[in-house]
User: Fold DUF815 domain-containing protein from Campylobacter majalis.
Amino acid sequence: MIDWTREYAAIFRADKGLISVKDIDFVDINDLVGLDFQKSELIKNTKDFIQDKEANHVLLWGEMGCGKSSLVKAVFTKFHADNLRLIEIFYDDLKYLPLIIDELRDCKFKFIIYCDDLSFENGSRDYKYLKPLMQGSIAKPPKNMLIYATSNRRHLVSEYKHDNDDVSVLNGEIHYADAVQEKISLSDRFGLWISFYQGNFDEYLKIVDYYFKDENIDKKELYDMAKSYATLRASRSGRTAKQFYLSYKGRIRRNAN
Assistant:
């Protein structure tokens, strides 16, 4: 058993159960540039949660490298001193989620159940294991747990053309087959959707500026190299800006001043 008065985060392992994380990847929320709206939405929801107000399960979805995972870790960092705890579970271990719920339901701490890169491929029906947390069973959903999931897709379950074979049109009204409705309804169980997109070059360069803020360097050279780097990678995401900084922080000419 984990002593949650002393531990702040854990990862679930199928062979060992909950394992406390000693070297937590804390993220300063002020380091996330260009995500003002996303930050305010997730901060408000999390604050409501720890204050026993109504709060939603959250789906953070959108393009790769745009800060979805970093934002979850940053909000946890901001509130971990307020009895908030974080548990990471991988999507292929979701069948063990009811065991986690049983173990923590009566705990005095609040828990974010964090599932990164959540999606269900090739007809997987493992999403049904989310139901006890999101909808309950004969037991009500736990009040001290929410799921924060990240995904590159808004509809978490893969959809195929043959899924629509049983769709019918009656008097101009579309009637979807049960299988299609079930797949679409999974995302609907997340009360809060937060979307992430790559910005334009100006927004990308603002993130680059933040990473190089303590460097006295030639800005024209910095921007030219940053744009070339982004173009070669076909990405203007925050992750690309950070990778550029790590790769080039010692190579750009410093100002004579």
The radius of gyration is 21 Å.
